[in-house]
Amino acid sequence: MKVYLDGKFVDSAEAKVSVFDHGLLYGDGVFEGIRLYDGNIFRLEEHLERLENSAKAIMLQMPLSRAELSWATCETCRQNGLRDAYIRLVITRGVGDLGLAPWLCPKPSIFIIAGKISLYPQEYYDNGLGIVTVPTRRIGPAALPSTVKSLNYLNNILGKIEAKQFGALEAIMLNDQGYVAECTADNIFVVHKGELLTPAASQGALKGITRSTIIDIAQATGIPLREVDLTRYDIWCADECFLTGSGAEVIPVVKLDGRVIGTGKPGPITQRVLADFRARVKLEGTRI
Ligand code: PXG
Questions:
Q1: Which domains, ranges and CATH numbers included, belong to the chain?
Q2: Are residues 76 and 15 in contact, defined by beta-carbon separation less than 8 angstroms?
């Protein structure tokens, strides 16, 4: 496998960063998780825009222009002969002294890995997923905006560990106020009386690219959609629930903390949205 690393394509065994890189020392950096479907990169421009905004938010100078980033991303897929892949684009603060000071890191580092992603098993798309609420709360936007896709994922990792301890593959993380923020690596939607509801970014959700695709699908198909404050009650009493993410795509949720949601089977709006999403990934995208 060839990895793009600071302007060169290197063998994966040679793709190494320094122990003094602040991405490693402090989680100081930003990233994107992007999908390649049948030779088309899904919503590449949106991912690069979010990456640029994440970098801007942490005052990290982008080492490449949008056009250069776009080329490097496509070229990484081409170099590996891939048609379907998961692309991880990472920008770190780069090498510096010990000590937080990012201004002592003269040159950010950038790398792009294109590889396989392990998806949820098909049975969960057919029958739905059971998820849990974990005790670890989502970091509030006042501490670190959830819109920044940073290399600091410990908060979500704690959530993921707790989910596993409770026997679930994904978990709801509440914010400080007890409202539903999102899941450890997915956004959440519920269907209530024919309407799609999802938490706003201000409640601690990442502005997911899949989430924004669902918003477009809802608009195109005339399904009403609102950003609202959601409690666990709203999920217990929802007609349907599903999660969205570049990895998961659209996955139905049929149980929360052992309580059955709706009929206990993936509902009609979830199935419609999932079908529309799968159709869009074939049509939209940047050809590599
Ligand atoms: N919330 C969080 C905290 C995420 O990390 C999403 C929501 C969904 O956003 P997108 O833009 O993907 O629709 C994410 C995305 C991985 C992996 O490596 C993680 C994500 C996506 C793809 C792979 O586990 N997180």
A1: 2-115 (3.30.470.10), 122-283 (3.20.10.10)
A2: no
